[in-house]
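Exercise: predict the fold of this chain.
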Amino acid sequence: MNSRFQAAIERTPTMHYKNYDIFVIAFPRPDGHWSASGEVQKYGAEGLEIAQQFSGPFKAGSETEAKLAVIRDAKLKIDAILAEPN
């Protein structure tokens, strides 16, 4: 019997914002809170660009609050990137 299991992991962005895909992941913490962080990706002239550890981690009382904190932070950072002159 083959003990290897092959599976494809599908990534679906939590949100699309100004040509960026925002991915958010949240985990419950032992203290009853939630921790969330995120990364972004976009397709540019040089292909797929990924910024890991782009936002977070944020600690909050619920999964939704933690994820929303990541999204708010990611949107602010994307706006700052787009505002910089090339």
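Check your answer against the key: The longest strand covers residues 47-60.
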